[in-house]
Design goal:
By secondary structure, this protein is of the alpha/beta class. The protein is built from ten helices and 14 strands.
Length: about 325
């Protein structure tokens, strides 16, 4: 099976190649695609070397699946051309997420909605993916009314430029800035551009994507997204109000049995999720599970996941795995 990775030299594209190899996805040939300045460079995949090609050449090579991580403009321009050639696109940008004709998929939550007709499939925002993995099983049991989430997001979510800014600042080196302000020893309460309502695009993505993935517009959600100087993954403080009451031990049991979720919740041993320990893992970790004592039927928890893996590359590969398993392409 030929698989194209569009944006193969970027942070997420590189991670996609790594995840494909680690999960033994049935690849016969990798077609790495990148910008013109990378054409001809070689990337290694499972001991074989492949030359980076341009995006038109990737279509001509007729892969079965194309994993896109090259930005929204590239996806808008090229995804439909891959689709026209009979290639299934799994897109990591925001280009198609809110298109009513395109599915927005977290496999553990809503993969069953996919059909062979879905040739452009959207990968959700990283911060949304880890949150809905926890929300879905709790919603099924207790019915969620409202969610208040504050995120603490890794610089890797911005890309190589942001990682370089953080490392340069730690070394006292002046360099290119990914952010308007220093990120080391700082927290920047802005991720993406501000909108007319005072929220950022990232915050509104979480609102809209959650409703679409969960298939329930009745869930009210508000978000504040913050960039912090971490590298291992995104963290979220989540407050969830339910229609029905719950037992804390039942909540922990439900989450422990949820696919893709690992409960790390033992305050006696100081066990709780952190980016440092979530780094390079495919699971989403939840801890600090406790009742909100200020309001009835309300829960607090802390969710952490590696944003480059489950928040991006792994989720895309898991979608591809589902398509292969069900023969949907």
């Amino acid at each position: 099976m030929k698989v194209a990775v569009v944006g193969a030299t970027g942070l997420v594209g590189t991670k996609m190649l790594e995840v494909l190899a680690q999960r033994n996805f049935p690849v016969s040939e990798i077609i790495p695609v990148a910008s013109e300045r990378s054409i001809g460079k070689e990337i290694e995949f499972k001991g074989n070397k492949y030359k980076v090609v341009n995006i038109k050449s990737a279509i001509d090579a007729k892969p079965a699946i194309a994993l896109f991580s090259a930005g929204g403009n590239t996806s808008l321009e090229w995804a439909t051309k891959f689709e026209a050639a009979g290639i299934t696109v799994i897109d990591n940008s925001s280009a198609w997420r809110m298109d009513p004709q395109k599915k927005l998929i977290v496999p553990e939550v809503n993969a069953a909605s996919l059909t062979a007709a879905d040739k452009i499939i959207a990968n959700p925002n990283c911060s949304t993916i880890q949150m809905v993995l926890v929300l879905k099983p709790l919603h099924d049991q207790y019915k969620i009314k409202r969610v208040v989430v504050s995120t603490y997001q890794s610089v890797t979510g911005t890309g190589v430029k942001a990682v370089n800014q953080l490392m340069n600042e730690r070394k006292g080196i002046k360099g290119e800035m990914a952010y308007k302000y220093p990120i080391d020893l700082n927290a920047i309460p802005q991720i993406d551009l501000f909108m007319e309502n005072g929220y950022t695009k990232e915050e509104m993505k979480m609102v809209k994507e959650t409703a679409k993935i969960m298939g329930d517009d009745s869930i009210k959600l508000t978000a504040t997204c913050v960039r912090i100087p971490t590298m291992g993954g995104h963290s979220e403080a989540v407050n969830i109000e339910f229609e029905n009451d719950f037992d804390i031990e039942d909540v922990k049991r439900i989450l422990a049995n949820a696919p893709g979720v690992i409960v790390q919740d033992n305050i006696a041993e100081f066990l709780y999720p952190m980016p440092l320990t979530a780094h390079d893992k495919d699971d989403t970790f939840v801890g600090r599970i406790r009742r909100d004592e200020s309001q009835a039927n309300t829960l607090n928890c802390w969710i952490v996941s590696d944003n480059l893996r489950k928040g991006a590359a792994t989720n895309a590969v898991q979608i591809a795995e589902y398509l292969v398993e069900k023969g949907l392409f």
